[in-house]
Amino acid sequence: MNEMETIPLWAAALLVSLLILGGSIILIGALGLMRLPDFYQRIHGPAITVTLGAGCVLIASMLYFTVLQSRLVLHELLITVFVLMTAPIVSMLIIRAAVYRDLRARKRDSGVESGGIYRFPEQE
Amino acid sequence: MKRWLPSSLLSGMLFVLWLLLNQSLDPAHLLLGTVLAVVAPLLARTLMQPIGYPRLAKPIILIRLLGMALVEIVHSAITVSRLILFPKPDGMNSQFIKIPLDLRNPYGLALLSCLINSTPGTVWVEILPNRHELVLHVFDLHSEQWWVDTIKTRYEKPIIDIFHEEVHKENPP
Questions:
Q1: Across A2-15, average pLDDT
Q2: Is A51 an 8 Å CB contact of chain B?
Q3: Which structural domain, as residue segments, surrounds residue B164?
């Protein structure tokens, strides 16, 4: 805790608020994963964790190390770039797998038919 | 120049990536970064053969688009959090919607999919192969036409402009 004391007050206040904001957004994302009724809605929960939640934590990390080491620490930007490049691909693959699995298993309560784009094979 | 440095954009990104990873501006790291920036695009050239490296016709539009997407991400993250914390009594209207696309450039489509999937509340499912229509899943749909208009004017139009030159070169009329 010794090095925490060298941080000026304004930076500490900003850091704490960023961390609290990021933490609560990640918590809300997890809550969404738990509380939303069907799979296609649940996939939207982690999206806020990945973007805004991770963003707040990464900005806080950049700020903390920049102030602590009195030099610009920017390599968290790489994490941001890679998260924003890879997370969309994962969600795309997962939702596509879910759509075709539900269609094949003919799960009527899964919500795959909402919007009328995907139909079960027997109905055509 | 073109032969030894096929994509100045990719080279620049690799160089910056190397320096950021090592967090230093030592001459040794500058040299290693330069080697990486020159060699990697040359080695990867055969991988990119059928479509070639992307050319940004208008980088300014890309920056403006990314800024707009950032605002949109924050905005919809707040909307989605509110919907999770205080669910509507009659349930969310989650639906798949179809959006006809004019964009054909593979890099443009990749950029569009990353932007759409990064925005909370929308997930890109797939492009229906024979009609070239994009299927999106929307968390809380209020108006399908609004989504079609938003995607087409605010996302697709700038992306077409960004990659315009290359499309023109690759598919001569």
A1: 81
A2: yes
A3: 59-170
